[in-house]
């Protein structure tokens, strides 16, 4: 009987004191500050990634054009499909990241 009483007291004290300790944890203001910082940096980073993607797309298009003009039609359809799908991938990743960060 005595063991069950001690167990009940420990269990009740755990249910009452642990939530009080959790409420006293610091860091919520820091979390909101970091969240705002990510929101500010996201636009700059997304623009930078889109510029890099545009440069890579232009270079890929020029490579395909050069292969077409030089008569190397060997795998031109695979190159065109890779180029189109990479552009589509960049667009979808941008939309996914905006949804992920809630921006």
Give an overview of the whole structure.
The protein has 103 residues and is an all-alpha fold. It has a domain at 31-101. The chain contains three helices and no strands. The chain has helices spanning 2-23, 28-69, 76-101. Helix 2 (28-69) runs antiparallel to helix 3 (76-101). The longest helix has 42 residues, at 28-69. The termini are far apart. The mean pLDDT is 77.
Quickly describe the structure.
InterPro entries: DUF4134. The protein starts with a helix and ends with a helix.
Mean pLDDT: 77
Distance between the termini: 58 Å
Binned strand content:
under 5%
Task: Output the structural class.
Answer: mainly alpha
The count of DSSP E runs of length 2 or more, i.e. the number of strands, is 0
């Amino acid at each position: 009987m005595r063991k069950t009483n001690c167990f009940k007291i420990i269990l009740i004290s755990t249910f009452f004191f642990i939530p009080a300790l959790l409420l006293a944890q610091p860091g919520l203001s820091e979390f909101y500050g970091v969240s705002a910082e990510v929101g500010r940096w996201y636009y700059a980073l997304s623009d930078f990634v889109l510029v890099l993607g545009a440069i890579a797309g232009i270079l890929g298009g020029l490579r395909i054009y050069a292969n077409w003009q030089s008569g190397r039609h060997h795998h031109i359809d695979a190159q065109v499909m890779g180029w189109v799908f990479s552009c589509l991938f960049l667009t979808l990743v941008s939309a996914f990241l905006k949804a992920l960060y809630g921006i």
